[in-house]
Amino acid sequence: MNSAECLNLTMLIMAIGSILVLAGWLWLAVIILQESTLWAIMVIIFPFSALLLVLENWETTRKPVMVLCTGCLFIFIGLVSQKFCSGSIVRHVGQGGGIVLVCPPHNSSRFVLRVG
What we know:
By secondary structure, this protein is α+β, with helices and mostly antiparallel strands.
């Protein structure tokens, strides 16, 4: 796998993360609208007020929040791997089926990320 393929993979990971974040927010918006119109207006004006609603109604908002957090995790992993793909040596592990990113030492440090 060369650097271009590695960057394509990281872009795919970030795209999946973005879709999950969008799905989580839309799911949460539906729950907010079902709660009350006042909550919906508050969330539009003050987006962080959604945290109050999530804390008050954790049982109903738990799943969309988990989808949203999973999407954020995917985006973070994509950003980190993109940083390392730009100057990394990417090797495919044969029988294991995973991908190993071995980054060259920039400041005498070595980073190895094993996926799979």
